């Protein structure tokens, strides 16, 4: 089977059981003496391979039909195991001739050419282990993790190798049919089921001629269906090209060295973006190709986009070069997605993990590929973080990000790739859909807006506070970077429910109904009394940045709604964050203190998330 074919994916519910029902019906019909009209299994497309010399078997590439042909091999293997156990030697020799080629001494590579069907890379080890087992006991011994102590196949919470599971399933079904008491003895029923399998099913074989384009035929047969992912077609495209350039051995080497990593579970995991769910490999290929083309690639037309990259301006990009490009981007993409690693892209990925910033990924990959200086990469990625965070805190829409970041990608590709050029380009944008907030707009939102559960949700608020904490630490701190911040809660120093323990400036206590009156008045435009204005100011202040900090969840729960002095004692006792140092020095806490702390934190924020003025 050629390298580009995907792994075996048929399963019991969707394919094996319906096929067994067809086999059983044909066998039952033979017992009753009914006419044996062949059951059509569909067409397979085969591409004959040129044979050089006298040694070696005649081989054909399976362009379409590999799932069916592999399943038939599993059915015949199951039948052979049962015939061997029953010592049905004549029938066994017929079945084995359908599984293996004879005369291994005339083969170039007997370990592969002995099989009638040879699977794609990922399935080969399990295929050989299962197909070569002489009996069921040996088959169990080769897959010990798949069986219970009683020798039955595990049913719950275990994924079995497909070769084992298929052969075991068909062994069970064929054995049960043979052992039924009606319709003859076991020997005659064995012969009947063997004849049904070998004589009552047919396929139409389409053999490609020397000038037929296997790639186009494969796309026509599979590209419009729902069964193949776009990356299956892309793999097909690459390895058909590899076959043409270097033959099977060259394609095998490329698979082992440059493609096999994409068969790992990391790349097959389903990832959701908006309303779409795709395997991670598809999102990666889209991102990498956009970084290469500096243009948009529709995820729904990913294969078409890949061909734009692979065919190039004049000639098809060699298969090795295609795979090398994907591998370079894959190493970057892993760090970007995981947020782990020592490179600037890993830090960028970690910082933006909570910001739904996948629209920046093509630009980020382009920066890493095009800018060799790690320091310049870090500066450019910091610019992107600043752009996103400032806009989020200013409550500006992210709806235009996809087009906007692709526009930045195109602009960068037209000249020197530097932080200065990126900053200048972003600074030139205007309007709510794309502008990069300057310090005055950022400052106003920072000091006055409801940040927590207003501009930002809880996780993003925590991320901002964590960056502030690290930004407040100097290189001379015992721990320049704080760790374990993910275990902390966002705390409102002035609590959300402040009415019982936090009197107003005049010493009186407000009620929640008064706070509700302020809310109603703000919507209706009614004038407020001085008392209600004071309550309104406090309600607004409690969600402002100056009133937020990080605390261990146990400390936060214990002092949640209590007076400030009790909270301050908890901070002295439990916290060593720079964020909380000013709170430990304060004698009281209210709107003025919140405003003052907000201004102090803004000076830190302005350094962390630099604006367009910082060019």
Keywords:
single chain, 615 residues, mainly alpha, 3 domains, three-stranded mixed sheet, two-stranded antiparallel sheet, 7% strand, elongated
Largest sheet: 3 strands, mixed
Please state the CA-atom Rg, rounded to the nearest Å: 34 Å
Alpha-carbon distance between the two ends: 57 Å
The total of helices stands at: 27
Structural class by helix and strand composition: mainly alpha
Mean pLDDT value: 88
Low-confidence stretches: none
Task: Itemize the secondary structure elements and their pairings.
Layout (H helix, E strand, L loop, with lengths): L11 H21 L6 E10 L11 E5 L1 H20 L3 H9 L12 H4 L10 H8 L4 H7 L19 H17 L7 H14 L1 E7 L6 H9 L7 H30 L5 H4 L1 E4 L2 E4 H14 L8 H10 L7 H20 L5 H8 L9 H10 L3 H20 L7 H13 L5 H9 L11 H10 L9 H14 L16 E5 L19 H13 L5 H12 L6 E5 H6 L5 H11 L6 H5 L5 H18 L7
Parallel strand pairs: 1-3
Antiparallel strand pairs: 1-2, 4-5, 6-7
Helix pairs in contact: 1-7, 1-8, 2-3, 2-7, 5-7, 9-10, 10-13, 10-14, 12-13, 12-16, 14-15, 14-16, 15-17, 17-19, 20-27, 22-23
